[in-house]
Amino acid sequence: MCREGGGSVTVRYGLGIDTGGTFTDAVIVDLADYRVIAKAKSPTTHSDLSIGLFESVRKVFAACDVKPSEISLAGVSTTLATNSVLEGKGGDVGLILIGWKNYTEGMTFGEKHLAHVRGGFDSKGRMVESLDMEEVKRAIEEVSQGVQALAISGLFAVINPVQERAVKDLAIKMTGLPTVSGTELSSTLGIDERARTAVLNGRLVSVIGKFFDGLETTFREMGVTAPIMVYKGDGSVMSIEKARRYPVESVFSGPAASSVGGRIISGLDDFIMVDIGGTSTDVAIMDGGMPEIQAEGASIHGWRTHVRAVDMYTIALGGDSLIKLKDPVVDLGNGVVIPFFSLSRFKSFNFTIGPERVIPLSVFCRDSPEIIPRIRDSWVSDYYRLIRRPGPEEVTDRCMRVVDTLERFGALSMVEIREKTPGLWTIDDEVHLLADKGYLVHGGLTPSDLMVYQGKFENGDPEGSRAGIYALSGALRMKEDDVVQRLLDMIHAKIAEAILHRLMDDRFGTWSSEESLKIVRDMASNKGSRGFAVLPRIDVPIVGIGAPTSSLMGDVGKRLGAEPIFPENGDVGNAIGAVCSKIVESMTATVTPCDDGGFKVAVPMRDYRYLRNLELAIDTAKDMLRSVLTESLRKDGAENIQLMFKTRVYSMTDDGLWTENDLDHAEVIGRATGDPRGLN
């Protein structure tokens, strides 16, 4: 209840959460007008995300009079899935391919174990070969060893999913492992794309599942009983139960939420959204108040997820990206970031920023202040610290020897670990494995440290940042301010280049080549050459979202001839977007002609239907989609459900004239939208 002027009126409050690579943000908004009531930040605790989440939620309730029981709707966006893909993290997956052994020679999908079984369908939905259930059982037993999830992909299962469904049901019964089939996630006809998407989903299940478990426990313990919705990569939301099954749909959920949040807090409908987090920088285009969607899925490292997502261009550059000095002649190796000798004899040098995310030196040195003088003296700014000891059965003997060294001596550089661990000449693999598994934390110089050094950002102990920059300037024999400026110039150019890359993708589609990239880099660098420069002009503003964005973007607006806008509450834009969106689900039905003149209708994970004419088949496809989508949204807690349909016909002629006899196949795309319960 909110009392104003002696009266009372019911106010619906929303709790938005964004768990990013550096901070976990919490915000409470009035769902009637999206006014921010309170906001809070806490460092993201990567060893246990629920700790930072709990602290952030505790702070936001402490900052206002709203009680946990008064929350009507909770929404969550997270970069966890995106960062897991970018950093190559995730669980192991067993993959079963049905009916397409001859198509996979030399191919890999990211799986740990792979098995083929006979079966599959042709492009008309006709069975090529039936399943041998004994063979299927043996395959399930084989691929389920030592994995956290299973994935199933069948030949032309989009046309007829019955075999995929049978194998999935048996796999769940036999193993109890999370299992997904390719057609549940993607309606694309490409068998390899569906397999990769299913494997990626399986890899994320264990990572995302732990986060959602901690999230739900935290909310319930604090008294938040409202429905919990999870942001999807296409700018809509899904229930937390569905998010556990299909975590791949949350890839780019953080940037998608920032797009919607950017619209709300900027009041603009047309703009370029730039979201700079701890691990990555994401660029999206907002057109008419909605982010542009890529039907083939998010693009990460040039690969598409094939799950509908905001059409985003992402680079591995964030506030916590590791800054390294890249020597053009000498291979530093062994994790040594700063050389022990002067590089002044070289005519040129450059830096690399990312893709690895580390703890900024300001934060790392707050907890290990004893390394500050060692950084200054040795010019080495990469350090590791043990945060929990593994059991001897969890890692190798070599790893345990590294653990013993760190436990005895505290935070050490890679060189120091090697010197203090008897009998180990190479330790890179062991240290990286321990860090990947969460036993060690890795600290190093980052863009966040540059902002701390300049006094633009408070984050830990500034002496740690100063020590790292001092070490780098000493190695290069440059002034500290000059080193910082050179690094910031490189960061600004990378962000400007990412924006241009996204705009070029939107305008020209396939355009990238070695020559065209040189032109884009020249435009982003803001440096003319011998009286000639190619200068861009962007007619819509650039809206910056994220805590470090205003500092790290610097003169990007000037470089691109665009107006930069950093709206109020932009530091929690993702969290605002997370609780201010609709539940949306899309599904595609496929209609294919049969040899007898009839038509087969296939809807993912449903039995196919046979109809005598095309018009009736398309109407039946719409009815099936209407039933499936409505049922799915109601399970997610949606109200005010609305449906839209679009039909695409693919013929075997290219003259634009066709009859039913010319039909190759037709797609009926259904899209259902609804309000989360608690929003109204």
How would you portray this structure in words?
- With 680 residues, the protein is α/β, with parallel strands linked by helices.
- Among the domains are: 93-201, 3-Layer(aba) Sandwich (Rossmann fold); 321-477, no CATH class; 583-676, no CATH class.
- It is 36% helix and 25% strand.
- It is built from 21 helices and 32 strands.
- Strands 5-4-3-6-11-12 form a 6-stranded mixed beta sheet. Strands 13, 14, 15, 20, 26 and 27 form a 6-stranded mixed beta sheet that branches.
- Strand 3 and strand 4 form a beta hairpin.
- Helix 16 (480-508) crosses helix 17.
- The longest helix is centred in the first third of the chain and has 32 residues, at 191-222.
Main sheet attributes: strand count, strand direction, barrel closure: 6 strands, mixed
Number of helical regions: 21
Shape: globular
Whole-number average pLDDT?
A: 83
Give the CA-CA distance, first to last residue.
15 Å
Indicate the low-confidence ranges by residue numbers: 1-8, 328-348
Helix and strand arrangement:
Blueprint: E1 2-4, E2 7-9, E3 13-19, E4 23-30, E5 35-43, H1 49-62, E6 71-78, H2 80-86, E7 93-98, E8 113-117, H3 133-143, E9 149-154, H4 162-175, E10 179-181, H5 182-185, H6 191-222, E11 228-231, E12 237-239, H7 240-245, H8 253-266, E13 271-276, E14 281-287, E15 290-291, E16 293-294, E17 299-300, E18 303-304, E19 309-310, E20 313-315, E21 321-326, E22 350-357, E23 359-360, H9 361-367, H10 372-378, E24 383-386, H11 397-409, H12 414-420, H13 428-436, E25 440-444, H14 447-453, H15 462-476, H16 480-508, H17 514-525, E26 542-545, H18 549-553, H19 556-560, E27 564-565, H20 573-578, E28 583-593, E29 599-602, E30 609-611, H21 614-635, E31 638-651, E32 663-676
Parallel strand pairs: 3-6, 6-11, 7-8, 7-9, 9-10, 13-26, 23-25, 26-27
Antiparallel strand pairs: 1-2, 3-4, 4-5, 11-12, 13-14, 14-15, 14-20, 16-19, 17-18, 21-22, 24-25, 28-29, 28-32, 29-30, 31-32
